[in-house]
Amino acid sequence: MPGHPLLWLALATLVLVVVFAVWNLAATLRQMGHGENVEGLGSPNDPLR
């Protein structure tokens, strides 16, 4: 199924953008599960905790 290389580049870019958007939404929802406490180190939203 040959196609123009720019078509493949556009499709690959679209897939990457959609994957990033889904990952970002999942991360945001996970962070919101801790509430709105967005303090610094040691807080419920600290990713190293």
Which keywords apply here?
single chain; 49 residues; mainly alpha; 1 helix
Structure description:
The chain has 49 residues and is mainly alpha-helical. It contains 1 helix and no strands. The longest helix has 28 residues, at 5-32. The termini are far apart.
Topology readout:
Blueprint: H1 5-32
Residue runs with pLDDT of under 50 for 5 or more positions: none
The fraction of residues assigned to DSSP E strands is under 5%
Range of helix content: 55-70%
Helical stretch tally:
1
| Rg result | 18 Å
Largest sheet: none
The general outline is: rod-shaped
**Number of separate strands:** 0
Helix-strand category:
mainly alpha
Mean pLDDT: 79
Structure, briefly:
By secondary structure, the protein is an all-alpha fold.
